[in-house]
Amino acid sequence: MKKVSFEEFGGPDVLRLVDAEEPHAGPGRIRIAVRAAGVNPVDWRVREGQVLGAHPVVLPAGVGLDAAGVVDEVGEGVTGVEVGDRVFGEGVDTYAEFAVLGAWARMPEGLTFEEAAGYPSVVETALRIIREVGVLRGQTLLVSGASGGVGSAVLQIARERGIRVVGTAGAANQDYLRDLGALATTYGEGWVERVRRLGDVDAALDLAGSGVIRELVELTGSPERVVTIADLGAPEFGVRFSGVAGSVPAALAEAVDLISRGKLHIPVEKSYSLAEAAAAHSDSQAGHTRGRRVIVV
């Protein structure tokens, strides 16, 4: 089978499309014929060799956590899913023709494989950081870097829970944030005052890692009211870095519910082939994403 792999840490150019042995579904796992794989910032952070405790890497290594596809192997002890089912979920080395998943759910009706591949880690992360930052119904949540996949999910989930949301993004994505129910403003010089003009902020999430932790603490009044998924230096300010996943099966179940009720939709901004994985990583690292980027197999 074809698989994206890297033999050394580095930039996007270390990624190679190689021939590899097919993986197989062990106990409690399923294997899918991958139709699409989500491109997440954690993918290129791991490729760069950043120290992420939840994702130890042994070289050579594959790439990717999220995927959608068709079940073609069911491991021992697995129930409720059969060969031929269309599923999406989280596993390992998903930039490949076949991948093993440890958490999955049946795809909601009407969702394409490309769309489905963009949800698993994104929704788990959004649910986790909303919980960790402790924002409640009727309060205001500031989301820095709000137009990407996690930001798109956070805005919609927070609004569904009765939380007022303020999002920062580039000028081209202001209408997109407003369409998701957020009060929108641009980042860049003067952004703190622009946020203040929109009202008091009870909690804040940093999704972009753009060096704004100090300002987020200032706006919320306490480092305990700020959580980041992108700035590894945040603990120096007393701010939590959230990088360890919670229950992915529970997150997938909630994603299915929200999608089925029309309360969650994350658009696919661009699709890439396996051979274009390096370009996908370059584009992801450049930021300014609206929704998700995915690899189509």
Automatic annotation (TrEMBL):
Sample GO molecular function, one term: oxidoreductase activity
Enzyme class: oxidoreductase
EC number(s) per entry: 1.-.-.-
Cited InterPro entries: ADH-like_N, ER, GroES-like_sf, NAD(P)-bd_dom_sf, Quin_OxRdtase/zeta-crystal_CS, Zinc-ADH_QOR/CCCR
Domain Enoyl reductase (ER): 10-295
Pfam families linked: ADH_N, ADH_zinc_N_2
UniProt entry keywords in alphabetical sequence: Cytoplasm, NADP, Oxidoreductase, RNA-binding
Compartments where located: Cytoplasm
Keyword match Cytoplasm: yes
Known partners and oligomeric status: Homotetramer.
Protein name: NADP-dependent oxidoreductase
Annotated source species: Streptomyces violaceorubidus
